[in-house]
Write a structure and sequence with these properties.
- The chain has 1127 residues and is α/β, with parallel strands linked by helices.
- The protein has 7 domains: 1-186, Rossmann fold (3-Layer(aba) Sandwich); 193-298, Beta-Lactamase; 310-425, Beta-Lactamase (2-Layer Sandwich), CATH 3.30.450.20; 463-618, GAF domain (Beta-Lactamase, 2-Layer Sandwich); 719-873, Heat Shock Protein 90 (2-Layer Sandwich); 891-1009, Rossmann fold (3-Layer(aba) Sandwich); 1028-1126.
- 44% of the residues lie in helices and 20% in strands.
- The strands form 8 sheets. Strands 8, 9, 10, 11, 12 and 13 form a 6-stranded antiparallel sheet that branches. A 5-stranded parallel sheet has the order 3-2-4-5-6, sandwiched between helices.
- Helix 18 (466-481) packs antiparallel against helix 21, helix 21 packs antiparallel against helix 22 and helix 22 packs across helix 27.
- It is elongated, with a radius of gyration of 64 Å.
């Protein structure tokens, strides 16, 4: 394996800049002259240094920047020990080195008279040589470095602090040269280099590969020697490389740098990775023939740093552009000024302009020159930071406001080396500040005007007395404007146009004008004031055309200048303000005009308010008189309402009291009357009584609704059960009229809803009853549907429709249909009967329940009522089915008891006695409350039936006494009343255990007593009796018949009766009655006869209060039969 000793200095580790300078060929002949000396390598010895003493630093340069370079060197602390000397030719350098031997030489590669090949080795023998060149001189620099130069520095770097550092390093590392010719030693020294040193022969085969090349390319020396150089190049560069090498071999240059700014050099590593490189190539002559040697450096990190630096510079430039902030730097040794791109834009100069201090100072506004000079002196002479606000005048004449900041740059030695600073364009900020100052000035003026306006307005508004307002306004305005006279006129359009003076302010010795009236006719000035809200300023009244006709009058009153304005309210004039200046003409300012106009607006409002106050006082007086009349009417209406309420309550009581006897005795007579004609009369009496009671209830309900005393009671109800009951109630009537009657509840309706069950039934009874009443043929249909509520997920929107094919209602009758006691002509009372209260009550109840009702009808076609309830709460659980009414009609079902009946009406007492006739109970009677209380004390009854309304001590008073006495407080009380218990329910519940409303039926009485008296002990209705052989003996024929009847009743109890009890179907009721009548004809058992007769009467009269009670008594009938058989 062979190695080559190269004539290159290993001390250079810095990359060389790309060259495009063809002028380097000027040194070709000189370089060729030095080829003969390359066989001998000049290297520095190690460990030895020359004694520097006071050896100078020699600057060999002839260019225009030589003084700046000299100043840069002299500014460094190195110049204290090694003074700088300057020469301008090669001969001068040689002479100086012969006589003085400088410690360091800064050698311009283009110095006149310089022979690089001969001079550089000579100079480098005893002096540290740094060669200076421009861009493009890299090949000459490489030649100089090969000949012994310590370092290379381009002129741009030479103007920076880096020059001093390079001088210090060159001096520190320079030592006298020794001649070496040992190839092994040269190879070892080449291996020390970090850069790759590679040599190839004429066939482009690698013949030398140092350790630096191994580190960079990854090839071991053994595997790469003899290989073509192309292995170290990317394939895409192979052809270009060959062309470049061939061209270089024909050139006269001994060395040059490869590549340029347009083309980069790339290497390829053993693993295939590529990297950018800097390469210098040289031609060397050897005994075996010419070879090419290259020094290669991996610049990947450098390229990355350059990219990052370029990115940072771009971001900095962008940031400066966005912030409108530029930067500047002044280099003190060279006296050069540099600007950032944004600074050129701020100053309005093209980027190619060379900035100078004088050029910048010429941009400073003349008025700001002293400020800039002071700031510059503070930085340059005192070495202190400084700042200044300046104006720059650009070449286009535009002025920019800038904020300049700067600080000194100090070397480690403490010497000032330059200045650095920023310049911010603050023009927009200055404009904003100016606008803000203007706004603040205007605001201050406005605040002053507002304060004055507020003070004057407050004084004006302290009183609503017009005379006081006029006086205050004149005084405040006159003083505020400092005039000689202030006049307040009031405009009076009726009966004739006038503007009399009603108040004035006078300064000292100014004549009053109160007794003078200014005319309107022919007065253009006054006419203008009454037609516009703008003020009229007359600085000199004798030059104002509007006052030309009034000049003599102005002279008479000594007027020189005037400011006048009309006062308006809602566009109509109501006065004038006049300000007079009598001692001189006066210029009225815009602020004064604006203020008087504002004051006129306030005074116009104050005048209007004073006028409105007078009108308001009069209106209130009239209103007070009207209110008195309304109060009297209200009291009369309330008295009439109370009288109406009392009348209705009395009417209810007075009618229900005799009806109690009528219906009660009719009930008692019913089983006693058997003759058909008499029974028909008796049933007519009962039916008429019930109609009368319904009428009374409707009137009372309507009265409560109108008075707002009707209360709703919401509870969980099952609408399906209610609709089914309504169908059962009216089905018989529909069948009698041969009408199809349907009741449908859609599946969308929840099982349970919160509603007022009583009022819901009342609505249904009225609507369905009317539909059946006014329908002669066709259909009556009831439908209920539910929809999602728009307001709540826990509620539904409920819709009820009642549709019929009846006579219909004319459109003109729709409005009066819902009025009380009114019916349409088609629904004639003479033909159909009724009072017209039903629909009025339905409408009121619907509205109280949160709904509304709609009517759709055509005469002769039919009618549809639609009731909509938008939000009906869903019950969380289905409501419990109403409890089955207890057995009704039989008072002997209770254990024998002593009952006290207290009622002032004899017929009522007789009715109760009739109900209890032939029972095991004992009755006591009292006709007044006092007697009743005494009997209760002495007789201690088991129950007291107490009438609520009696003369003297009434039921309420008697109950209070009984509840407070120890001997009677535990006796249960059942109140009998002809009025609604709900009226005083809260109070009455504290006094009694129940209510029965008159007229009192037997079924109502039994139902009320069910919770107050104990029942007789009875066997279980489902208990089966023993066979007939175990029973007591009966007459043979009757025993056999009753046993047969018992079997039939037991079978009916188990099969027919349960569904009848649950549904109360009209069809099942009819079939059940038919079966009862069949049994009655066969068996002739009196209790069966009585039971059948009671159920038949209720069925025929449509009495749905009695039907359920009677059906539920059927098990008692079987029990009675069993008792008879056991006896």
């Amino acid at each position: 394996m062979g190695r080559l000793a190269l004539g290159l200095s290993p001390s250079d580790r810095r990359p060389l800049a790309a060259s495009k300078n063809p002028d380097a060929t000027r040194r070709t002949s000189t370089a060729n002259q030095g080829q003969s000396r390359q066989q001998k390598l000049i290297l520095p010895t190690t460990g030895t240094m020359l004694s520097d003493g006071k050896k100078p630093i020699l600057l060999a340069s002839h260019t225009p920047d030589t003084p700046q370079l000299d100043a840069r060197i002299r500014a460094d602390k190195l110049a204290r020990e090694h003074p700088c000397q300057v020469v301008a030719t090669g001969a001068a350098v040689r002479e100086f080195c012969r006589q003085r031997q400088p410690i360091a030489l800064l050698l311009d590669l283009h110095l006149p008279g310089l022979a690089i090949a001969e001079d550089v080795p000579d100079f480098a023998t005893a002096t540290a040589v740094i060669v200076l060149g421009d861009r493009g001189d890299e090949a000459l620099a490489a030649e100089a470095l090969a000949l012994g130069a310590q370092d290379y520095c381009d002129r741009q770097q030479a103007h920076s602090p880096l020059l001093a550092q390079r001088l210090e390093r060159a001096i520190a590392t320079h030592s006298p040269p020794v001649a070496l010719s040992d190839p092994c030693l040269l190879t070892k020294m080449a291996d020390i280099a970090e850069d790759a040193i590679i040599a190839v022969d004429a066939a482009q085969r690698i013949i030398f590969f140092n350790q630096g090349a191994t580190r960079i390319f990854g090839y071991a020396v053994a595997e790469i020697l003899g290989e073509p150089l192309a292995r170290l190049l990317p394939q895409r560069f192979a052809q270009v490389h060959n062309q470049y090498v061939q061209g270089f071999q024909t050139e006269a240059w001994p060395a040059r740098r490869m590549g340029d700014r347009r083309r980069e050099i790339w290497g390829r590593r053993r693993d295939g990775g590529e990297f950018p490189a800097e390469v210098s190539i040289a031609k060397l002559a050897t005994p075996t023939g010419p070879i090419l040697a290259a020094i290669l450096r991996d610049v990947s990190a450098q390229k990355q740093s350059e990219l990052e630096l370029e990115l940072e510079r771009a971001q900095l430039a962008r940031a400066q552009r966005v912030a409108h902030v530029g930067s500047w730097e002044f280099d003190l040794p060279t006296a050069t000024l540099s600007w950032s791109a944004e600074l050129f834009r701020i100053c309005g100069l093209p980027p190619e302009t060379r900035p100078t201090l004088n050029g910048y100072q010429a941009l400073v506004h003349p008025d700001d020159t002293a400020i800039w000079q002071t700031a510059w002196a503070q930085m340059y002479e005192q070495g202190q930071p400084a700042e200044a606000d300046l104006r720059l005048v650009r070449s286009d004449g535009r002025i920019r406001h800038v904020y300049v900041q700067g600080e000194p740059l100090v070397a480690p030695s403490g010497e000032l080396t330059g200045l650095f600073g920023t310049l911010a364009d603050i023009t927009e900020r200055k404009h904003t500040e100016a606008q803000l100052r203007d706004s603040q000035t205007q605001l201050s003026r406005q605040l002053v005007r507002m304060a004055l306006l507020q003070r004057v307005s407050d004084e004006i508004r302290r009183s609503l007395d017009s005379r006081q307002i006029f006086h205050t306004a004149a005084q405040q305005i006159g003083q505020a404007f400092r005039v000689d006279r202030c006049l307040i006129h009031v405009y009076q359009p009726e009966p004739t146009n006038r503007v009399p003076i009603v108040a004035e302010y006078l300064s000292t010795d100014t004549a009053s004008l109160l007794t003078i009236e200014v005319p309107i006719a022919g007065n253009r000035h006054m006419q203008r004031l009454l037609t516009q809200e703008r003020a009229i300023a007359s600085p000199d009244v004798y030059t104002d055309p509007l006052l030309a006709a009034a000049a003599p009058f102005c002279r008479d009153i000594g007027l020189q200048s005037m400011l006048a304005v009309g006062t308006f309210y809602q566009g109509q004039p109501n006065g004038v303000i006049g300000l007079h200046q009598c001692d001189r003409p006066r210029h009225w300012t815009a602020d004064e005009i604006e203020l008087i106009e504002a004051l006129a607006g306030q005074l116009g409002i104050a005048l209007a308010q004073a006028d409105l106050l007078a009108q308001e006082v009069q209106r209130r007086q009239e209103l007070a008189e009207s209110n008195q009349a309304l109060q009297a009417a209200k009291e009369a209406a309330e008295a009439a309402s109370r009288a109406k309420g009392e009348f209705l309550a009395n009417m209810s009581h007075e009618i229900r009291t005799p009806m109690n006897a009528v219906l009660g005795f009719a009930d008692l007579l019913h089983p006693l009357v058997v003759e058909p004609q008499a029974k028909s009369y008796l049933e007519a009496i009962a039916a008429s009584g019930k109609v009368l009671l319904t009428l009374i209830d409707d009137i009372l309900d309507l009265s409560k609704i109108e008075a707002g005393r009707l209360k709703l009671h919401y509870e969980p109800i099952d609408l399906r059960a209610t609709i089914n009951e309504i169908w059962q109630i009216f089905q018989q009537k529909a069948l009698a009229k041969q009408l199809a009657f349907y009741a449908e509840v859609d599946a969308s309706v929840p099982a349970g809803l919160y509603f007022d069950d009583v009022r819901w039934r009342q609505i249904l009874l009225n609507l369905v009853g009317n539909a059946l009443k006014f329908t002669e043929r066709g259909t009556v249909r009831v439908t209920v549907r539910a929809y999602p509520s728009p307001n709540s997920a826990d509620a539904v929107a409920l819709e009820l429709r009642v549709t019929d094919t009846g006579i219909g209602i004319a459109p003109e009758d729709h409005e009066q249909l819902f009025q009380a006691f009114r019916q349409s002509d088609g629904q004639s009372t003479r033909r159909y009967g009724g009072t017209g209260l039903g629909l009025a009550i339905v409408q009121h109840l619907t509205q109280m329940l949160g709904g509304h009702i709609e009517l759709s009808s055509q005469v002769g076609i039919g009618t549809r009522f639609t009731l909509s309830f938008p939000e009906v709460a869903i019950a969380p659980e289905p409501p419990l089915a109403p409890a089955i009414a207890p057995t009704a009609g039989d008072l002997d079902q209770f254990q024998p008891a002593k009952l006290l009946v207290v009622d002032d009406v004899a017929s009522n007492r007789e009715l109760i006695a009739g109900y209890f006739a032939n029972t095991a109970h004992q009755l006591l009677f009292a006709s007044d409350g006092t007697t009743g209380v005494e009997l209760a004390r002495t007789q201690q009854p088991d129950l007291i039936l107490l009438d609520l309304r009696m003369p003297g001590l009434d039921g309420r008073g008697a109950a209070l006494i009984l509840k407070h006495e120890p001997v009677t407080r535990t006796i249960p009380i059942l109140l009998l009343t002809a009025q609604s218990p709900q009226d005083d329910e809260a109070e009455l519940q504290q006094l009694c255990q129940g209510f029965v409303r008159k007229p009192v039926s037997r079924q109502q009485l039994v139902a009320a007593l069910r919770s107050l008296l104990p029942l007789r002990a009875e066997p279980d209705p489902d208990t089966r009796v023993q066979p007939a052989t175990a029973a007591a003996p009966l007459p043979p024929g009757e025993s056999v018949d009753l046993l047969t009847l018992r079997v039939a009743l037991e079978q009916a109890l188990a099969t027919t009766w349960p569904p009848l009890r649950d549904t109360l179907s009209v069809r099942q009721l009819s079939e059940f009655l038919t079966q009862l009548e069949a049994w009655e004809e066969v068996h002739h058992w009196p209790p069966l006869n009585e039971y059948r007769a009671t159920l038949r009467q209720a069925f025929d009269t449509f009495d749905w209060l009695t039907i359920p009670v009677t059906v539920n008594r059927f098990p008692e009938l079987l029990q009675r039969l069993r008792l008879d058989l056991s006896a």
